[in-house]
Amino acid sequence: MANVIFLTLEQILAIHFDQIERYSGSHGVRDLPLLESAMQRPQASFYGEDLYVGIFDKAAALMHSLILNHPFIDGNKRTGTVATAGFLHFNGHDLKLTQKELVEISLLVESKKLDLEQISKWLKDHSI
What we know:
- 59% of the residues lie in helices and 3% in strands.
- The chain is built from six helices and two strands, in the order ααββαααα.
- It has a two-stranded antiparallel sheet.
- A hairpin with a 2-residue loop joins strand 1 (45-46) and strand 2.
- The longest helix is centred in the N-terminal third of the chain and has 15 residues, at 9-23.
- The radius of gyration is 14 Å and the shape is globular.
- GO terms for molecular function: kinase activity.
């Protein structure tokens, strides 16, 4: 796989700030170690082998962790979905979906109705 561009902590914090400013809610990080864990998960490896091999698997790991770790006081689903879209964009893929689909995927992830493989497939199916 070509060099993957991962989001930085500063970028994820900026996404969170933007989402709260646009749509309301409470600013702030609830748990910094959980946020760092979520943002590092797509980069995880074991004995030098990536745990999440494809770009959509990495994106799914990011979305899953940002939503379910609840690292922010508010806006975890919004931040998780927008950060995932940004991650894919930086790596040559753009999500093509409606606002309704964006809300639906975040709710499905939050309710644990999709596993990582299903999230990855959904992201791939909705990318151009």
